[in-house]
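Box 3.1 A note on notation
Throughout this textbook, protein chains are presented in two layers. The first layer is the amino acid sequence; the second is a token string describing backbone geometry. Keep the layers aligned when reading.
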Amino acid sequence: MRAETTTTRIGAGLSTTANAGDAAVEAARAAKATVKTDVDLAVVFLSPHHADGATAAVHKLVEELSPRHLLGCVAQGVVAGAREVEAGPAVAVWAASLPGADIETFHALAEVSEDEVEVDGLPRLDDADLVALLVDPFTFPAGLVLDRLGDDGRTPPIVGGMAVGAGGPEAQALIVDDEVVGSGAVGARLCGVEVRTVVSQGCSPLGADSVVTSADGNIVHELAGRPALERLRAELGGLSPERQRLAAQGLLVGIVIDENRSEYGRGDYLIRGLLGADQDTGAIAIGERVRIGQTLRFHVRDAASADEDLAEALDAVRADSAAGALVFTCSGRGTSMFSAPDHDAVAISAALGTEAVAGMFCGGEIGPVGGTPFLHGFTATVAVFESR
């Protein structure tokens, strides 16, 4: 008989033990020590060192926690509490008691022909409070699937990431309940949970907003009635020398997704790369299709901007109500971006007032902007579960 509880309880554990089974037991016990009751959903993240031991780790974790549902994958690195392990053996376990929640796990497979994608195994999602999605990027076109969900109006909050830690095609280990699968995507549909999503794209804006007045696909011809490249040069010319140096390292474009606001802040932009410019026509190419009437703003990214952006995004979450969180951060962050280790893990656990935090380093992160789920890069996406 399962223990009765009316309070959301979440724990996280980490082990850097070299044996996959032993590491799973150690991390699971640490997580269970906080939960102290039956586990409704557990999520396990394995470092590449443990790819061959994924099945053994799952068996040990199921024995230790007896979770109603289990998700997991092999990732490039793992997050647990205030620690990030970017290299070496590691297992992170996140365990949650979610009273009253309706949880459905699934394994989805996709077939792509030209620009069409057919997905099998994906449950109804539009009534979910949260969907967690772990993806093998070699066999599941997450970007196309998310686009289709948006077109169909089936847009619950979706968080997750591309699991690339196991290597190339047919090498992945995705975990759904007590099964290890090698392709597609695994996920959990959660209803009856109180959760808030945070998406920090790690950028700061420069210049002013401009409305797209001429565009074709991902080619922007005019901004506010002027050639897009001319507008960009004018924005750059008005920057301080320091900001110009940042811009010289790489420019990005922020696209406003939800236009129903009087003004736009950082969380309102979908960040995409500036791919190139045509000196003759004055057009610019960006990494997303746009339409006439959308609002764009140029952005830059650096460690200071990423730190500030994450802090600002977390400010919107009430720390006194946070029970725990799942974190999906880009492999291009960590010590590749920040001078000190554990940056995102420390910031998130401190802001939420809990170390019941676990997650992974991704090769692409999934999170909502303006209510629509997108595949991102260099982003930290967080699902914050609130206590009841």
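The mean pLDDT is 92. The domain at 204-300 is CATH 2.40.10 (Thrombin, subunit H).
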